[in-house]
Design a protein that fits this description.
Layout (H helix, E strand, L loop, with lengths): L4 H19 L6 H8 L3 H7 L4 H22 L5 H17 L2 H11 L2 H18 L11 H21 L5 H18 L4 H17 L17
Length: about 220
């Protein structure tokens, strides 16, 4: 039995992650998550009214852990440099495990998650200060929507391709950030320099425990 609501919620999330890793999102029922988490359906819906709501916490946690890890290892002179390092670590860990890649494909095809990814991109763009684009720019929301749509299509194309090697991931990052650089007014030459450094860094830290699934960290008591 878990002592607090926070512990219960975390145990539900951890159980869901393990099941999503083994079976995928669609093939994992709420009843199976409740069984593994040793909790009642009413408790589950109290914390997560819909199964899709689990995904927001899973991706928020993953994004947070990647950002904290990158910031703990390096200092950056330019926001684009930092952003590319985060992006490189995020995608190399996401796409070097076939089960996680399959799960991510499912998530990208869920309409409600597209809206969540858009809001997450707005947050990252607003605090990272990419290029000359400011969050109070009247075109800011339009730019971020376009950027999010491009990322989604490029990622789906990558997943559906036959080549998921590190070289292919490096190419994907280049495609994503070439578009991103144009949208956020970051010079392409500087982008390529940062991208080369970022991918080398990401390759060096592939063994770090930064996986999207399953969870290995718990809330402290």
């Amino acid at each position: 039995m878990y002592k607090t609501g926070v512990e219960t919620k975390q145990h539900i999330l951890d159980s869901a992650r393990e099941l999503f890793y083994e079976n995928g999102f669609k093939n994992t029922s709420v009843s199976r998550i409740c069984e593994k988490a040793e909790t009642m359906p009413g408790t589950f819906t109290y914390h997560y009214p819909k199964k899709n709501d689990l995904l927001k916490d899973i991706y928020s946690d993953y994004m947070h852990r990647v950002i904290v890890f990158v910031d703990s290892k390096k200092q950056f002179e330019h926001p684009a440099e930092r952003h590319l390092h985060v992006l490189a670590v995020y995608y190399t860990h996401l796409y070097t495990d076939p089960k996680i890649m399959s799960f991510h494909k499912e998530v990208l095809q869920i309409a409600s998650m597209n809206h969540w990814f858009h809001n997450a991109r707005k947050l990252i763009a607003s605090y990272s200060g990419e290029g000359n684009l400011r969050s109070d720019d009247p075109n800011f929301n339009l730019y971020v929507k376009a950027d999010n749509a491009v990322r989604r299509e490029l990622n789906l194309n990558f997943i559906e391709s036959d080549d998921h090697s590190l070289g292919a991931i490096r190419k994907l990052l280049g495609e994503i950030y070439t578009i991103n650089a144009k949208l956020f007014d970051v010079g392409l030459e500087l982008t390529e320099h940062y991208l080369t450094e970022a991918f080398a860094f990401a390759e060096d830290v592939l063994e770090e425990d930064l996986s999207l699934l399953p969870a290995t960290e718990k809330y402290a008591e």
